Amino acid sequence: MDFELSEEQIMFRDQIRNFAETEIAPLVDEAEEKEVTPLQLFPMMGKLGYLGITYAEKYGGAEVDKITECILIEELNKVCAGIAGVVSTTHSGLGTRAINDYGTEEQKQRFLVPAIKGEKIAAFALTEADAGSDAIALRTRAVKDGDDYIINGSKMFISNGTFCDFVPVACYTTDPKEVKKRGQGISLIVVEKGMPGFSATKLKKSGNRSHETAQLYFEDVRVPKENLIGEEGKGLAQILTTLKSGRISYGARATGMAQAAYDLAFKYAHEREQFGKQIAKFQINTVKLVDMAMHIDIMRIMTYRAAWMYSEGMNCMKEACMLKIYATEKVQELMLLALDLHGGYGYMREYAIERLWRDAKMLNLTEGTTPINYMAAARELGI
Ligand SMILES: Cc1cc2nc3c(=O)[nH]c(=O)nc-3n(C[C@H](O)[C@H](O)[C@H](O)COP(=O)(O)OP(=O)(O)OC[C@H]3O[C@@H](n4cnc5c(N)ncnc54)[C@H](O)[C@@H]3O)c2cc1C
Fold first, then answer.
1. Core-most of 21, 100, 159, 192, by most CB within 10 Å?
2. Average pLDDT, stretch 93-105?
3. Is 8 exposed, middle or buried (0-12, 13-18, 19+ CB in 10 A)?
């Protein structure tokens, strides 16, 4: 067993860390304040090869393993969870995964290649107003009409929905009355920006404000049959594959955010003095810092193990679910510890810990809430 990162991974980590600190960090305050995603990052990151890094070289990817992708996700989340969510988990993950894994060569040329270059932006639309955790209760419907599908319905809470160039949309292509088993008859169909009848409205959020989120509407949207991903009616498997990879990415997100919180708390606790000494030196605060460091270590190891299993093609659904539960719940506690160490200042918006604390809340609400991941892990354990 080897716990060391390779030389390439260390070099890559240093490069992406430098990029995040020099190119992303200066954009964060304005993007968060105005609640607008800095889209200029897409072509910039595309040129540097930081988008879709796990995809094949022939499509412009770097064909790296999932651990390397987790390194990138961790570094981006240390600087800004909102922007990290836009470019890594949504665009390079959710929005393009099914096209990469199940799409035709023509779809890969049309969507994946420009996405990796940062010329087209992806989103992923599964959730609906009345179908959240129970996603297969979705009602969006695609009906065949000659060589096209006509899509009607709406989607809720869609990351990148306001500006995406394309979005795989989960919809029933089979009449729900004819569906014998729940989840059968769902397909992923790619809807493109500008298609008549497709619109979006922006939602206002508590955290991750630089990560635009939207409600999408489809009113008689005509989509060519060439935009169907994989086989008609087999979308559920595509969605599950997409979410499995996403759960591991969330381990990396939580690790990055917790690390950033620890770094801030460590620095502050050594600068701030009360009762004539650094607050870090009061035993109760020392314990808080050690606890944080220890749990970050566990998160990172769990993330790398699940990522390694994923890249080796092993069944890692159990590990991915347990990682998602552990990391996204533990990060909530760690954010509170870090904020508490900042005292009243931590509650002020000019202190970075305040944003991190708000941003982290999203992690156990999205890509499967904690109860849903418990249910999935229980299935894997045969309970
Ligand atoms: C900021 C943000 C970005 C998002 N981005 C996307 C995106 O890009 N694409 C997309 O498709 N979706 C996206 N989502 C949707 C997200 O995945 C859903 O919000 C999530 O799946 C939960 O669904 P819900 O909000 O409807 O909650 P509900 O499913 O209504 O759950 C409410 C509560 O009930 C609990 N619950 C539900 N069922 C059970 C059960 N069987 N047993 C025990 N407890 C249960 C839940 O855990 C939760 O605590 C995003 C959401 C947010 C907030």
1. 159
2. 97
3. exposed
Encode pLDDT of 113-122 as tens digits: 999 999 999 9
- Domain 7-117 is in which class? mainly alpha
Is the distance from CB of 328 to CB of 377 less than 8 angstroms? no
Q: Is 366 in the pocket of ligand 1 (CB under 6 A)?
A: yes
Give the CATH H-level superfamily of domain 135-233.
Butyryl-CoA Dehydrogenase, subunit A, domain 2 (2.40.110.10)
237-381 under CATH 1.20.140.10, yes or no: yes
12 lines ligand 1 (CB under 6 A): no
What b/e string do you get for 48-66 counting C-beta neighbours within 10 Å, with b at 16 or more? Answer: ebbbbbbbeeebbbbebbb
Active site residue 319: no
Using only C-alpha atoms, the chain has a radius of gyration, in whole angstroms, of 21
Confidence of residue 2 (pLDDT cuts 50, 70, 90): confident
Annotated domain spans of the chain: 7-117, 135-233, 237-381
**DSSP assignment of 330-375, as one string?**
HHHHHHHHHHHHTGGGGGSTTSHHHHHHHHHGGGGTSSS-HHHHHH
Which ligand 1 atom minimizes the distance to the CA of 368? Answer: 21
Question: Buried b / exposed e across 345-372, counting CB within 10 Å, b at 16+?
Answer: ebeeeebbbbbbbbbbbbbbebbbbbeb
